[in-house]
Specification:
Layout (H helix, E strand, L loop, with lengths): L1 H22 L9 H5 L3 H44 L1
Amino acid sequence: MEAYDKCLSRMGKYEADRRSSSLKYVSPILYSKEGRRSIPESTIKHIASLNSLDVELHKYAQKIFEQRQQRLLSSRKKASNNFFS
């Protein structure tokens, strides 16, 4: 758990730094059909690859959440059973 928290902390800092630095190079894009057509294919592929990483991370976070939720429910059930025994 400690390793996970450390990793999460590092990842948050890394992502914040990456986001700040990448926004320096973004030029405004009009969200019209013409504007969308002007987006380079390499940019679209890069966004898609990052999106797939986000989806993978989200699935992993859901799995961890479900595990923690099950542990919590299990421990509550045990405490309840002990209380009424």
